[in-house]
Model the fold of this input.
Amino acid sequence: MNPHVATSEPRSVTPFPAPKLMDLPQFQGEHKESLYWGTYRPQVYLGIRARTPQSLIAGLMWINERDNKYQLRHVCKHEDELSTYGWTKHNGRDFGHQVLADHAMILTTVFLKSKGAGSGYGGDWAVRIDGQMDNTKMSSNDDNNLKTWVSDKLMSVLGYSQPTVIQYVIGLSKRSASPFDLVSQLEGVGSHRRRLRPALSLQRSSPWFRANPLAA
Done:
């Protein structure tokens, strides 16, 4: 028999005679209930569920346009090319904050949970989602789409559209403090009040104008 050859011997695995960690008293009661709801769904940009197999599932989906193609965002994927995502603040229990930077679109999500007298088991939770556009990251294609959109609206409102007028309206909107300020300034150039009133709906409905922090 070669003494240098190790011999394999059968192993006997005996479970440690102790209760499971999560069954200990200190992990029951209020502690267990406080962790019932949370951001427990993996591999998605935002996912809320309870710690039960039959839980309600909530999440976040949005659509971004790149190269004239609509792309759905939900599951974390490398090909989405988000420059930033993930929780920047989270206490693991009842608060979380994250920033999703999808090219020129910036989304901020906040998760908050509380327990009041009228709350059900696990408390109440809410998610707030804020979105804005970073104009410095808008591509030339986005700029062309904006000009086309403004041109179409000018045709429907005024009956004509010219490049200088398009640039003027876009620039005026970015400098306006509010939609009403934009309408007031357009009226100030001598156009008829009744015909320029639809410019208010133009300001409110455009995603580019809504993203302008000065047009809130």
In short: The helical segments are 30-34, 140-158, 163-175, 179-188, 193-196, 198-205, 207-211. The radius of gyration is 28 Å. The beta strands are 37-38, 47-50, 58-59, 62-66, 69-73, 87-90, 95-102, 105-114, 124-133. Residues 140-158 form the longest helix (19 residues).
